[in-house]
Amino acid sequence: MARVIVLDAGVIIALLSPGDAHHERAKRLITLERGPFLMHPLTAAETLVGAAKQDKDAALWSRLQSLGIEVADIGPTEPLLLARLRADHGMKMPDTCVLAVAHHARLPLATFDDRLGAVADTVGLRHPIPDAA
Q: Is residue 89, in this structure, part of any structural domain at all?
């Protein structure tokens, strides 16, 4: 079975934006790892906002699912986990949501965000993103 990786919105935004500084690295990560990938529902929604403005969110979500992206379900204790992680690490809630998925399932987290990456390093959950080919 393939290794599951938690994705931050920035990875998908970079993947979908050829002009993004991280586009090639995001593309390489998705190509090499091949999923499955997990995203917090809030994180998935963040990636769909631009498409929703053009009424293309359903098509984009279908495309992301075809790449192996799934929505995580932490369960009824999620509010407690989010509160604890935010209190412990002082991150904004969107980043806390990404960390919560990785923390709950003990899965590696891929991000281009320096702050979130540093926290993921601290708790031993950061997944390295390969350099562009």
A: yes
The C-alpha atoms of residue 133 and residue 86 are separated, in whole angstroms, by: 36
Q: Taken in order 129, 13, 95, 40, is the CA torsion positive or negative?
A: negative
| Spatial distance between the Cα atoms of 53 and 7, rounded to a whole number of angstroms | 23
SS3 126: strand
Contact yes or no for 115/91 (Cβ under 8 A): yes
In a domain, 109, yes or no: yes
Domain range holding 14?
A: 5-123
The Cβ of residue 11 has, within 10 Å, a number of other Cβ atoms equal to 29
Which CATH number fits the domain that encloses residue 15? 3.40.50.1010
In the chain, the number of structural domains is 1
Tens digits of residue pLDDT in 64-121 = 999 999 999 999 999 999 999 999 999 999 999 999 999 999 999 999 999 999 999 9
- For residue 64, give both structure tokens: 């992301």
Of 10, 46, 18, give the one whose Cα is nearest residue 129. Answer: 10
